[in-house]
Amino acid sequence: MTPAAGVNGAPSRGWGPARQTLRALLSRHTVLGMSAGALEAVVSRVEFTCWRARQEIAASDEEPAGVRVVVAGVVKIVCHGAAGGTVMVQLVGPGCLLHLAQVRRDTVGRVCALAHTPALVGTLPAGAWREVACHLRVDETLRLAEGAWQTLSGRLYEKCALLAQPVRQRVLQELRVLARDFGTPHPAGVYIDVPLSHADLASLVGAARANVTRALGALRAAGVLAAIPGRLVLAAGAS
Q: What's this model's pTM, rounded to 2 decimal places?
């Protein structure tokens, strides 16, 4: 499904194809494990909103919106430092739940979710969430809460583990994560099927753009990245 970016920011309740896509995504979610009744309770109450690339979808200082899930496109979570500068925490694709934790203002300015590409996001408002809770078992409620946190917390742990690594190793690890989440088969290996500039990658690894460009050149020279102009293809065996 391709998000209709022309209606950016406009919610809709009547999108049959969007609900079918969301139903399929949630039914395959490895953490949620929702029953058929709970799944339908969620899908029937979700509101859909389209966003243009670079538009802000949500911020950590907003009122809680219940549950948000990416239905189509790619969304990035960005952390703004209290003293300036930004770091991209992660890129999330279809089926991922969005949860932005509130942060201390003395260390982090704000955290927000931005559309990296045109994106379709489903939102279960707080009021609708209370209705859905009536259809959930206790274990389903706990898994839904866990699913909203799991992806973000997992990436935060990975970021911390990368801090002591050289830039080249950081770049390679992020490419492996992107290949896992957005990879498609390619004759030379795995193609990372998401628009990604050197500046984007620098924000993901917390390094200067020039250093990331040099690291990419070194990885291509070592045969880890396939030398295909305009594309990031992780060579077979490198992922």
A: 0.81
**Exposure string (b/e) for 52-73, b if CB count within 10 Å is 16 or more?**
ebeeebbebeeeebbbbbbbbb
The per-residue pLDDT for 87 is 84
Identify the structural domains of the chain with CATH numbers, from first to last. 5-148 (2.60.120.10), 167-235 (1.10.10.10)
pLDDT at residue 4 tops 70 = no
Round to whole Å and give the CA distance between 11 and 8. 8
Identify residue 150 by its one-letter amino acid code.
Q
pLDDT digits (tens, 9 = 90+) for 47-67: 999 999 999 998 766 666 667
Closest CA to 73 of 119, 28, 38, 113: 119
Reported residue count of the chain is: 239
